[in-house]
Amino acid sequence: MNELQALDAFASLSQETRLRIVRLLVIAGPDGMAAGAVGDAMGASSSKISFHLSHLERAGLIQSRREARSIIYSAVYPALSGLIEFLMKDCCQGRCDPSVDTCSTACEA
Amino acid sequence: MNELQALDAFASLSQETRLRIVRLLVIAGPDGMAAGAVGDAMGASSSKISFHLSHLERAGLIQSRREARSIIYSAVYPALSGLIEFLMKDCCQGRCDPSVDTCSTACEA
DNA sequence: TCCTTATTTCAACATCTTTTGAGATATTGA
DNA sequence: TCAATATCTCAAAAGATGTTGAAATAAGGA
Fold first, then answer.
1. Radius of gyration (Cα) for chain A, nearest Å?
2. Is pLDDT above 70 for B50?
């Protein structure tokens, strides 16, 4: 992940609705969720959800596939890993020290 | 780190100048750097740098102290760790799998 | 006290982002 | 083909953020 991709990822995650969408899709797992189901979970209008889903997809944090009439969105786990690695390596330089315990626990959870 | 703090941190890091300031201050270490020195390194006007430094300080990612005529800014490492932990635990749920190797390496570097 | 250096504050402006609602497109089944 | 469902696109309005340059504040030294 380079600086530009990281800036895009941070911008995506700095918006409440989008951060919640990412968390929802991470929990939903690889099967993902239809755009409409995401909208219902957020209580947001279809155009609003579509705007935020596009934003997240453009940033590479989620991906989509069509399935019948629905468009199914799912998390792109490597993008999230990449962002974490960017923060740890390029940004924190190993100085920010999230305890190795926490780190392993989170990694293996 | 709660959702609101994370949103603030992501917003702070989604701006090029601010992301670079954080990286600069992380490298600078606990002694930090004067606002003017940060401005020189960025090639930015004093009011611009002041605006972004305030933004980062408000978000808790950096802190300041006065030293004679200068105001010295330095990274708040626990805030960066907190953000990494937020991403790994609350957001990724252990599914984004930054390889444990990478993870340990980064953590111990 | 006055001057210099370091930094912040402020208001005006420009730019970017988000929301809204209406209409367009795509898919399926009758 | 028509109707229904699911989603996207678009333009306008609203809101938030970033930039600029000038003026204000704070500290130290002559």
1. 15
2. yes
Q: For the segment B5-45, what is each residue's pLDDT rounded down to a tens digit?
A: 999 999 999 999 999 999 999 999 999 999 999 999 999 99
With H, G, I as helix, E, B as strand and everything else as coil, classify residue A103.
helix
Name the residue among B3, B83, B57 with its Cα closest to residue A92: B83
Residues from chain A contacting residue B85 (CB–CB below 8 Å): 98, 102, 106
d(CA A24, CA A28) in angstroms, rounded, equals: 6
Identify the residue whose Cα has the smallest distance to the C1' of D21.
B47
Residue A106 pLDDT: 42
Best mutation target among A91, A99, A101, A108 (most B Cβ atoms within 10 Å) is: A91
Say what the pTM is: 0.91
Pick the CATH number of B3-108 from 3.90.1200.10, 1.10.10.10, 1.20.1530.10, 3.30.70.360: 1.10.10.10
Q: Report domain extents, chain A.
A: 3-108
Q: How close B1 gets to chain A, by Cα (Å)?
A: 12
